[in-house]
Amino acid sequence: MDTIKCKAAIEAVLFATGSAVEKNILKNVIVKEGEQLSDKTFKEAVESLLEDYSSEERGIRLIELNGKLQLCTKNEYYDALIQLVNAPEKRTLTDVLLETLSIVAYKQPVTRAEVEKIRGVSCAHAINRLVDFNFITEVGRLDAPGHPILFGTTDDFLRAFGISSMDDLPDISPDKMADFQKQAEEEARIKVET
User: Fold this and answer.
1) What's the N-to-C CA distance of the chain in angstroms?
2) Which comes out higher in pLDDT, residue 172 or 145?
3) How far apart are CA 34 and CA 8, in angstroms?
């Protein structure tokens, strides 16, 4: 691996992780199978990146911390950043949100009433949270009284779950469906009609 490719690989990994990475770990992960990376080339690439980021007018810088490297925002741009991001919201997908999201993903386009019929409880809060997270969105209206909203998944959903299209969702086997139906019947102590 030459110095230019090494620099690009280091930059890509540091950008993607967003945190400090130990140099020896960084060196090991950027080498593709069958390639070689000498200590000298790695050191030259790191020094070149440090120089590039310190000499150019960029909004980010490369810092070295106890044998680790990290990309971070330059201090002079902190005020601009803080205006955009006061306190980033942590997206936590609870079981309720995951169940609701699964139903939307597999049944889309689907109305809130259809999701509630499947789950057996109100889903207004879960649907609103999933819309806030941009995992689902309005994809149309059902041609029925009241014209209820139809929901479907978004590109952010695909990105977050590492799939490229809805065709990549795993199929649910008939055996699994029978198990799910049995569990639902036991929990509700009723017979589910299929």
Assistant:
1) 59
2) 145
3) 18
Q: pTM for the full model?
A: 0.49
Q: Residue 52's CB: how many other CB atoms inside 10 A?
A: 14
Let me know if 103 is exposed, middle or buried by CB neighbors in 10 A (0-12, 13-18, 19+). Answer: buried
Pairing of the two strands 68-73 and 21-22? antiparallel
SS3 annotation, the chain: CCHHHHHHHHHHHHHHHCCCEEHHHHHHHHCCCCCCCCHHHHHHHHHHHHHHHHHCCCCEEEEEECCEEEEEECHHHHHHHHHHCCCCCCCCCCHHHHHHHHHHHHHCCEEHHHHHHHHCCCCHHHHHHHHHCCCEEEEEECCCCCCCEEEEECHHHHHHCCCCCHHHCCCCCHHHHHHHHHHHHHHHCCCCCC
Residues 151 and 140: their CA atoms lie apart, in Å, by 7
Q: Give backbone dihedrals phi and psi of 58, rounded to 5 degrees, phi first.
A: -125, 160
| HSE-CB for 165 with a 13 A CA cutoff | 1
C-alpha span between 76 and 60 (Å, rounded): 10
Write the pLDDT tens digit of every residue in 3-36.
898 899 999 999 998 888 999 899 988 888 778 8
